[in-house]
């Protein structure tokens, strides 16, 4: 008789017997990566036009930030300011992630006031690109041409956002504040 063994990760719907968490590399994990206790919630702000590429390929590493090559993250409000500053002031995307900020994978430093951010702020530069997971999309003032699939993730749309494709997400967040403040 065939018995399907179930992993011990809460919320996992796979039929495997052991759950691998790519963030902490536990091979028999009791959690999904999105709930990894070794990871924190951080945000990546980007112009809206990058969203399709992020949906398809994940976040792209920047080649020349203050901390060198890597994927840059900040806290929610500051990531939003970065996306405003890099875009046209309206259309923006804020990607919410769980990130393992262990110094083995990630550098961090204070950044001086920049773009619309009028004070010093902490930034993180992830150098191991496997050590994050996207858990939410915040999209403001734009049309997403394509599908958004984030079965367990969060979506925040402002009222001027439209998705022309299929949407599959876990939870719709009503306010920008709630999206940016995990
Ligand atoms: Zn599992
Ligand atoms: Zn983990």
UniProtKB/TrEMBL annotation:
The UniProt record lists the PARP catalytic domain at 36-75
Q: What is an example of a GO molecular function annotated in this UniProt entry?
A: NAD+ poly-ADP-ribosyltransferase activity
Pfam families linked to this entry? PARP
Q: Which residues form the signal peptide?
A: none
The record's annotation in InterPro entries points to: Poly(ADP-ribose)pol_cat_dom
SUPFAM superfamilies hit by this protein? ADP-ribosylation
What is the designated name of this protein? Interferon-inducible protein gig2
Which species?
Answer: Stylonychia lemnae (Ciliate)
What's the name of its gene? Answer: Contig12244.g13080
């Amino acid at each position: 008789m065939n018995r399907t063994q179930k992993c011990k990760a809460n919320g996992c719907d796979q039929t495997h017997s052991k759950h691998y968490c790519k963030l902490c590399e536990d091979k028999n994990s009791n959690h999904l990566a999105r709930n990894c206790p070794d990871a924190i919630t951080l945000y990546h702000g980007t112009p809206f036009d990058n969203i399709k590429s992020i949906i398809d390929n994940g976040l792209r590493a920047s080649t020349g930030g203050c901390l060198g090559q890597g994927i840059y993250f900040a806290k929610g409000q500051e990531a939003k300011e970065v996306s405003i500053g890099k875009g046209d002031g309206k259309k923006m995307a804020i990607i919410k992630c769980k990130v393992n900020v262990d110094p083995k994978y990630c550098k961090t430093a204070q950044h001086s006031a920049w773009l619309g951010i009028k004070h010093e702020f902490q930034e993180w530069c992830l150098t191991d690109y496997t050590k994050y997971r996207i858990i939410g999309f915040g999209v403001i003032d734009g049309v997403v041409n394509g599908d958004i699939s984030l079965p367990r993730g969060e979506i925040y749309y402002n009222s001027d956002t439209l998705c022309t494709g299929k949407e599959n997400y876990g939870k719709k967040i009503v306010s920008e504040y709630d999206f940016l403040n995990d």
